[in-house]
Amino acid sequence: MKHLLKLGDLSREEILTILNLADQLKYERQNGIFRPYLKGKKLGMIFQKSSTRTRVSFETGIYELGGYGLFLSNHDLQIGRGEPVEDTARVLSRYLDGVMIRTFAQKEVEDFAKYGSIPVINGLTDYCHPCQVLADLMTIRERKGSFKGLKMCFVGDGNNMANSLMVGAIKTGMAFSIACPKGYEPDAELVKWAKENGEFMMTEDVETAAHAADVIYTDVWASMGQEGEKENREKAFKGYQVNAEVMKAANEGAMVLHCLPAHRGEEITADVFEAHADEIFDEAENRLHAQKAVMCKLMK
Ligand code: CP
Ligand code: NVA
Hints:
By secondary structure, the protein is of the alpha/beta class. It is 45% helix and 14% strand. The protein has twelve helices and nine strands. Strands 7-6-5-8-9 form a five-stranded parallel sheet. Strands 2-1-3-4 form a four-stranded parallel sheet, sandwiched between helices. The mean pLDDT is 98.
Protein backbone atom coordinates (compact mmCIF):
# COMPACT_ATOMS: atom_id res chain seq x y z
CA MET A 1 0.00 0.00 0.00
CA LYS A 2 1.69 3.22 -1.21
CA HIS A 3 -1.24 5.66 -1.16
CA LEU A 4 -4.83 5.92 -0.02
CA LEU A 5 -6.51 7.27 -3.14
CA LYS A 6 -9.73 5.24 -2.93
CA LEU A 7 -10.97 2.29 -0.88
CA GLY A 8 -11.21 0.06 -3.94
CA ASP A 9 -7.39 0.01 -4.10
CA LEU A 10 -7.19 -1.74 -0.72
CA SER A 11 -7.68 -5.44 -0.14
CA ARG A 12 -9.95 -6.69 2.61
CA GLU A 13 -6.81 -7.64 4.58
CA GLU A 14 -5.33 -4.14 4.21
CA ILE A 15 -8.56 -2.59 5.45
CA LEU A 16 -8.65 -4.89 8.47
CA THR A 17 -4.98 -4.23 9.25
CA ILE A 18 -5.67 -0.48 9.31
CA LEU A 19 -8.72 -0.99 11.54
CA ASN A 20 -6.72 -3.17 13.95
CA LEU A 21 -3.96 -0.58 14.21
CA ALA A 22 -6.59 2.15 14.67
CA ASP A 23 -8.07 0.21 17.60
CA GLN A 24 -4.60 -0.13 19.11
CA LEU A 25 -3.85 3.59 18.70
CA LYS A 26 -7.20 4.48 20.25
CA TYR A 27 -6.47 2.22 23.22
CA GLU A 28 -3.02 3.76 23.65
CA ARG A 29 -4.38 7.31 23.50
CA GLN A 30 -7.12 6.51 26.01
CA ASN A 31 -4.38 5.31 28.36
CA GLY A 32 -2.21 8.37 27.86
CA ILE A 33 0.35 6.55 25.72
CA PHE A 34 1.67 8.58 22.80
CA ARG A 35 4.43 6.78 20.93
CA PRO A 36 6.31 8.84 18.31
CA TYR A 37 5.74 6.39 15.45
CA LEU A 38 6.24 9.21 12.92
CA LYS A 39 8.88 11.26 14.71
CA GLY A 40 9.97 14.23 12.63
CA LYS A 41 7.73 13.34 9.64
CA LYS A 42 5.98 16.16 7.84
CA LEU A 43 2.46 15.92 6.40
CA GLY A 44 1.17 18.57 3.98
CA MET A 45 -2.59 19.03 4.08
CA ILE A 46 -3.99 20.65 0.92
CA PHE A 47 -7.56 21.90 1.20
CA GLN A 48 -9.55 23.13 -1.80
CA LYS A 49 -12.80 22.74 0.16
CA SER A 50 -13.86 23.53 3.74
CA SER A 51 -13.33 21.10 6.59
CA THR A 52 -13.73 20.76 10.33
CA ARG A 53 -13.12 17.07 11.07
CA THR A 54 -10.61 16.17 8.38
CA ARG A 55 -8.40 19.16 9.02
CA VAL A 56 -8.39 18.96 12.81
CA SER A 57 -8.08 15.16 13.02
CA PHE A 58 -5.16 15.03 10.56
CA GLU A 59 -3.34 17.92 12.20
CA THR A 60 -3.89 16.52 15.70
CA GLY A 61 -3.08 13.02 14.48
CA ILE A 62 0.30 13.81 12.94
CA TYR A 63 1.23 15.86 16.02
CA GLU A 64 0.34 12.98 18.35
CA LEU A 65 2.53 10.68 16.25
CA GLY A 66 5.51 12.97 16.75
CA GLY A 67 5.32 14.62 13.35
CA TYR A 68 4.26 17.97 12.01
CA GLY A 69 1.29 19.01 9.86
CA LEU A 70 1.25 21.93 7.42
CA PHE A 71 -2.17 23.33 6.55
CA LEU A 72 -2.07 24.39 2.90
CA SER A 73 -5.11 26.20 1.58
CA ASN A 74 -5.58 26.61 -2.16
CA HIS A 75 -6.15 30.31 -1.48
CA ASP A 76 -2.48 30.54 -0.49
CA LEU A 77 -0.86 27.90 -2.69
CA GLN A 78 0.11 28.68 -6.29
CA ILE A 79 -2.27 25.82 -7.22
CA GLY A 80 -5.06 28.35 -6.68
CA ARG A 81 -3.42 30.52 -9.38
CA GLY A 82 -3.10 27.69 -11.85
CA GLU A 83 0.24 26.00 -11.09
CA PRO A 84 -0.25 22.45 -12.41
CA VAL A 85 -0.65 19.60 -9.96
CA GLU A 86 2.20 17.68 -11.60
CA ASP A 87 4.61 20.50 -10.71
CA THR A 88 3.19 21.01 -7.22
CA ALA A 89 3.53 17.26 -6.59
CA ARG A 90 7.18 17.18 -7.61
CA VAL A 91 8.02 20.24 -5.52
CA LEU A 92 6.21 19.19 -2.37
CA SER A 93 7.73 15.69 -2.61
CA ARG A 94 11.13 17.35 -2.02
CA TYR A 95 9.98 18.84 1.31
CA LEU A 96 7.37 16.53 2.80
CA ASP A 97 6.97 12.88 3.84
CA GLY A 98 3.30 12.65 2.91
CA VAL A 99 0.38 14.71 1.68
CA MET A 100 -3.34 14.71 2.33
CA ILE A 101 -5.51 16.32 -0.35
CA ARG A 102 -9.13 17.46 -0.25
CA THR A 103 -10.30 18.61 -3.65
CA PHE A 104 -12.95 18.28 -6.35
CA ALA A 105 -11.63 15.97 -9.07
CA GLN A 106 -10.42 12.48 -8.19
CA LYS A 107 -7.95 12.86 -11.06
CA GLU A 108 -6.11 15.51 -9.09
CA VAL A 109 -5.21 13.15 -6.23
CA GLU A 110 -4.38 10.40 -8.72
CA ASP A 111 -2.12 12.81 -10.66
CA PHE A 112 -0.42 13.96 -7.48
CA ALA A 113 0.41 10.35 -6.70
CA LYS A 114 1.61 9.77 -10.25
CA TYR A 115 3.96 12.75 -10.45
CA GLY A 116 5.04 13.00 -6.81
CA SER A 117 7.17 10.54 -4.86
CA ILE A 118 5.50 10.65 -1.42
CA PRO A 119 2.37 8.88 -0.10
CA VAL A 120 -0.90 10.62 -1.00
CA ILE A 121 -4.02 10.38 1.18
CA ASN A 122 -7.42 11.31 -0.26
CA GLY A 123 -9.15 13.59 2.26
CA LEU A 124 -12.33 13.74 0.10
CA THR A 125 -13.01 14.27 -3.56
CA ASP A 126 -16.29 14.48 -5.46
CA TYR A 127 -15.83 10.76 -6.14
CA CYS A 128 -15.02 9.32 -2.72
CA HIS A 129 -14.12 9.76 0.95
CA PRO A 130 -12.04 6.75 2.02
CA CYS A 131 -10.78 8.17 5.35
CA GLN A 132 -14.34 8.73 6.52
CA VAL A 133 -15.34 5.18 5.67
CA LEU A 134 -12.37 3.67 7.53
CA ALA A 135 -13.62 5.55 10.63
CA ASP A 136 -17.17 4.36 9.91
CA LEU A 137 -16.07 0.73 9.66
CA MET A 138 -14.08 1.10 12.88
CA THR A 139 -17.18 2.46 14.65
CA ILE A 140 -19.39 -0.35 13.37
CA ARG A 141 -16.97 -3.07 14.45
CA GLU A 142 -16.47 -1.39 17.83
CA ARG A 143 -20.21 -1.47 18.52
CA LYS A 144 -21.29 -4.65 16.75
CA GLY A 145 -18.21 -6.80 17.42
CA SER A 146 -17.76 -7.87 13.80
CA PHE A 147 -19.11 -7.23 10.30
CA LYS A 148 -20.48 -10.72 9.91
CA GLY A 149 -24.12 -10.87 8.86
CA LEU A 150 -24.62 -7.09 9.02
CA LYS A 151 -26.54 -4.99 6.54
CA MET A 152 -25.75 -1.34 5.92
CA CYS A 153 -28.31 0.96 4.32
CA PHE A 154 -27.52 4.37 2.84
CA VAL A 155 -30.34 6.88 2.39
CA GLY A 156 -29.89 9.82 0.02
CA ASP A 157 -27.48 11.06 -2.58
CA GLY A 158 -25.31 8.55 -4.45
CA ASN A 159 -22.36 10.83 -3.74
CA ASN A 160 -18.75 10.47 -2.55
CA MET A 161 -19.93 8.94 0.73
CA ALA A 162 -22.19 6.38 -0.94
CA ASN A 163 -19.40 5.45 -3.38
CA SER A 164 -16.94 4.74 -0.58
CA LEU A 165 -19.42 3.14 1.80
CA MET A 166 -20.58 0.53 -0.69
CA VAL A 167 -16.99 -0.49 -1.35
CA GLY A 168 -16.13 -0.56 2.36
CA ALA A 169 -19.26 -2.52 3.29
CA ILE A 170 -18.86 -5.13 0.56
CA LYS A 171 -15.12 -5.57 1.16
CA THR A 172 -15.74 -6.25 4.85
CA GLY A 173 -18.55 -8.70 4.09
CA MET A 174 -21.61 -6.60 4.88
CA ALA A 175 -24.70 -6.44 2.71
CA PHE A 176 -25.36 -2.96 1.29
CA SER A 177 -28.56 -1.26 0.20
CA ILE A 178 -29.12 2.26 -1.05
CA ALA A 179 -32.27 4.31 -1.44
CA CYS A 180 -31.77 7.24 -3.81
CA PRO A 181 -33.91 9.18 -6.27
CA LYS A 182 -33.62 8.49 -9.99
CA GLY A 183 -30.72 10.41 -11.45
CA TYR A 184 -28.79 10.49 -8.17
CA GLU A 185 -27.39 6.95 -8.17
CA PRO A 186 -23.81 6.16 -7.11
CA ASP A 187 -21.05 5.69 -9.69
CA ALA A 188 -22.23 3.15 -12.30
CA GLU A 189 -18.97 1.18 -12.35
CA LEU A 190 -19.05 0.81 -8.57
CA VAL A 191 -22.67 -0.37 -8.71
CA LYS A 192 -21.62 -3.03 -11.21
CA TRP A 193 -18.67 -4.03 -9.01
CA ALA A 194 -20.87 -4.20 -5.90
CA LYS A 195 -23.42 -6.43 -7.64
CA GLU A 196 -20.67 -8.78 -8.77
CA ASN A 197 -18.83 -8.89 -5.46
CA GLY A 198 -21.43 -8.90 -2.73
CA GLU A 199 -25.00 -8.48 -1.63
CA PHE A 200 -26.14 -5.16 -3.10
CA MET A 201 -29.53 -3.58 -3.59
CA MET A 202 -30.57 -0.21 -5.04
CA THR A 203 -34.11 1.18 -4.89
CA GLU A 204 -35.99 4.48 -4.90
CA ASP A 205 -37.93 3.39 -1.81
CA VAL A 206 -36.38 4.29 1.55
CA GLU A 207 -38.24 1.75 3.70
CA THR A 208 -37.46 -1.10 1.31
CA ALA A 209 -33.75 -0.28 1.54
CA ALA A 210 -33.88 0.15 5.31
CA HIS A 211 -35.64 -3.16 5.89
CA ALA A 212 -33.69 -5.27 8.43
CA ALA A 213 -30.66 -2.96 8.28
CA ASP A 214 -28.17 -2.91 11.16
CA VAL A 215 -26.58 0.40 10.18
CA ILE A 216 -28.46 3.32 8.67
CA TYR A 217 -26.25 5.97 7.07
CA THR A 218 -27.09 9.30 5.51
CA ASP A 219 -25.36 12.42 4.21
CA VAL A 220 -26.33 15.89 3.02
CA TRP A 221 -28.54 16.39 -0.02
CA ALA A 222 -26.16 18.93 -1.55
CA SER A 223 -22.43 18.35 -1.17
CA MET A 224 -19.65 20.90 -1.25
CA GLY A 225 -19.48 22.35 -4.74
CA GLN A 226 -23.21 21.69 -5.40
CA GLU A 227 -24.49 24.82 -3.65
CA GLY A 228 -26.03 26.03 -6.93
CA GLU A 229 -28.19 22.88 -7.16
CA LYS A 230 -29.60 23.32 -3.65
CA GLU A 231 -33.18 24.13 -4.67
CA ASN A 232 -33.47 21.33 -7.23
CA ARG A 233 -31.95 18.89 -4.81
CA GLU A 234 -34.35 19.85 -2.03
CA LYS A 235 -37.16 18.84 -4.37
CA ALA A 236 -35.49 15.63 -5.57
CA PHE A 237 -34.57 14.42 -2.09
CA LYS A 238 -37.81 15.25 -0.31
CA GLY A 239 -38.69 12.05 1.56
CA TYR A 240 -35.13 10.77 1.54
CA GLN A 241 -34.84 11.32 5.24
CA VAL A 242 -33.76 9.14 8.15
CA ASN A 243 -36.66 9.49 10.60
CA ALA A 244 -38.59 7.39 13.13
CA GLU A 245 -40.53 5.56 10.38
CA VAL A 246 -37.34 4.53 8.63
CA MET A 247 -35.87 3.35 11.93
CA LYS A 248 -38.93 1.12 12.41
CA ALA A 249 -38.07 -0.67 9.17
CA ALA A 250 -34.51 -1.29 10.36
CA ASN A 251 -33.48 -3.98 12.81
CA GLU A 252 -33.94 -3.34 16.49
CA GLY A 253 -30.79 -1.73 17.89
CA ALA A 254 -29.75 -0.47 14.46
CA MET A 255 -27.00 2.14 14.52
CA VAL A 256 -27.26 5.50 12.78
CA LEU A 257 -24.14 7.06 11.30
CA HIS A 258 -23.56 10.40 9.58
CA CYS A 259 -20.25 11.70 8.28
CA LEU A 260 -21.25 15.25 9.32
CA PRO A 261 -21.95 18.09 8.93
CA ALA A 262 -25.67 17.20 9.32
CA HIS A 263 -28.71 19.18 8.25
CA ARG A 264 -31.46 18.39 10.73
CA GLY A 265 -34.89 18.39 9.14
CA GLU A 266 -33.42 17.50 5.74
CA GLU A 267 -31.59 14.16 5.46
CA ILE A 268 -32.14 13.32 9.16
CA THR A 269 -34.61 14.39 11.85
CA ALA A 270 -33.31 16.05 15.01
CA ASP A 271 -34.89 13.23 17.08
CA VAL A 272 -33.09 10.41 15.30
CA PHE A 273 -29.85 12.38 15.27
CA GLU A 274 -29.93 13.02 19.02
CA ALA A 275 -31.00 9.45 19.83
CA HIS A 276 -27.86 8.24 18.03
CA ALA A 277 -25.52 11.11 18.93
CA ASP A 278 -23.14 8.81 20.86
CA GLU A 279 -22.59 6.68 17.76
CA ILE A 280 -22.25 9.68 15.46
CA PHE A 281 -19.70 11.45 17.65
CA ASP A 282 -17.72 8.24 18.26
CA GLU A 283 -17.64 8.01 14.48
CA ALA A 284 -16.26 11.57 14.27
CA GLU A 285 -13.67 10.77 16.96
CA ASN A 286 -12.62 7.64 15.12
CA ARG A 287 -11.47 9.76 12.18
CA LEU A 288 -8.47 10.61 14.35
CA HIS A 289 -7.55 7.01 15.18
CA ALA A 290 -8.22 5.61 11.71
CA GLN A 291 -6.16 8.34 10.01
CA LYS A 292 -3.29 7.91 12.47
CA ALA A 293 -3.29 4.26 11.44
CA VAL A 294 -3.28 5.21 7.75
CA MET A 295 -0.39 7.64 8.25
CA CYS A 296 1.60 5.00 10.17
CA LYS A 297 1.05 2.47 7.38
CA LEU A 298 2.05 4.91 4.63
CA MET A 299 4.66 7.19 6.16
CA LYS A 300 6.66 5.04 8.57
N1 CP B 1 -16.88 14.28 7.56
C1 CP B 1 -15.96 15.18 7.16
O1 CP B 1 -15.11 14.91 6.33
O2 CP B 1 -16.05 16.38 7.79
P1 CP B 1 -15.28 17.71 7.38
O3 CP B 1 -15.85 18.17 6.07
O4 CP B 1 -15.57 18.67 8.51
O5 CP B 1 -13.82 17.42 7.28
N1 NVA C 1 -20.95 14.59 0.71
C1 NVA C 1 -20.39 15.59 1.57
C2 NVA C 1 -19.49 14.96 2.58
C3 NVA C 1 -18.87 15.93 3.56
C4 NVA C 1 -17.96 15.25 4.52
C5 NVA C 1 -19.65 16.62 0.73
O1 NVA C 1 -18.92 16.22 -0.18
O2 NVA C 1 -19.79 17.81 0.99
